[in-house]
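Aim 2 progress update. The chain analyzed this quarter is reproduced below.
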Amino acid sequence: MTNKELAQKLLDLLGGKDNVLANAACMTRLRVTVKDTGNVDTEGIKALDGVMGLVEDDTMQIVLGPGKVNKVLEEFSKLTGLAKGVADESVVDAAATNKAAQKAKYESKPVQAFLKKISNVFVALLPGIIAAGLINGICNVINVSTAGALAGEWWYQGIRSMGWALFAYLPILVGYNAACEFGGSAALGGIAGMMCIANSAMPLLAPGAADPATAILLPLTSAQYNPGRHDRGSHRWRIFCLDGASDSQGYAQRARHVLVPAAGAHHWRLCSDARHPAGWRMADDCHL
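Predicted structure tokens:
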């Protein structure tokens, strides 16, 4: 829609030339003084393409945005035959008005409003995610370059724990923020996030952790509830034991996750530990 077409439509919706007493512009608004506000179609003005909002005050203030408002006023004054006026408005007020109008127009669209809520859930977490990612990255570089020389230092492992903790318990923060954003109970949102973290002490998992034969199976899937395991077709993530309780530097024995066929353990691959030049090897008596 051209500026001339927009000006004509605004004039018609404002009640025509006979209903307009004065026209002026500030930084963002076309201000029109009308004779009878009853002749003004306010909803029609708000629905026009190019109109960001409408403020009904002593004058009809049509928000068009900086730059555009002057072009529309030029055409509008030609149609009304009235001289162009200039209204005072501070830069701060103009910016606030423009932002509020844009926000109101944006939130009136349900899909965009929903996506905005989703983004708000994670925007608050970005500083923590970035910080944790940097900590993990730097610690991994140090770990590799020093061959694990700092593994026994409490302060180093404390820093590593900061990066680990954020990602380990991220579901709790996401659940908490999501509940707050969608108007629910923050505590219930946090509980929902907790349910997404695998913990062998969880009552739903405890029987199976002690003895797989006594695991509690869920209906429909007939599988044990375990948010920490990921199925990928015929493959599953399994945990097996590694031999060597510790080495000369005091590294504790650790388990690794490897991808193996669900039908058996005929094929597997281990990622060697940078702190152990010889790497880890599977013990002869280990089983899946």
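The longest strand covers residues 20-25. Residues 126-145 form the longest helix (20 residues). These observations will guide the mutagenesis experiments scheduled for the next reporting period.
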